[in-house]
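Researcher: Please predict.
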Amino acid sequence: MLNMREILQPTYRFMRKLALGSLLILLTACANTGPASLSNGGPGLGVARAALRGGSPQLALHIADNILASNPRNKDALLVQGEALTGLGRLDEATSSFEEVLNQDGGSIPALIGLGRTRLAADPAGAELLFLEALQHEARNPAALNNLGVARDLQGRHADAQTAYREALGVDPEMSAARINLALSLEAERQAGGPGQDRQPQAPSSGPLRLSQIDRGGN
């Protein structure tokens, strides 16, 4: 049975040692020491995003909170804050961050995707509508397509989910989250006795399916 929390929160986040994550963050900080990074007298959003990629949402949240303390309408900081809160499982707070961005910019694709991700577990149908809205603004956004597939899988619509995953892979053939989700969806369909029981996961024409580490597909 699909465990979508594991899909949305990459397993490698919980397996990386603190030293490795800290090294990544420090290296990224050294590469982002320009005015934009240091405008607040401390680590900037480039470091916060690196912290998210490195599996340190608490650090990302701390940086975003510091920026928002002096500039509470900073959309980029609100997005990082929302992603960090999502990674920490604080979905109600994350929802507020993404909604604040949408209050400023109703067509913000990252905010629509982020808000949809907060609703996946409780309301996958509502999440699907948010991902579709994001795709109205950018039809080939792979993160929106991948999350759309997750929302459909959670509703038991595996064939529709697989279409979304394949479209995501058509845009980004190296998107490991979509590859893994496609394989899981096909397996779930086989277990349910659906058409997937006689099919194998198909990768786009770029090459064979490679089940590798799960990417962060929500943004």
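Model: The longest helix spans residues 176-191.
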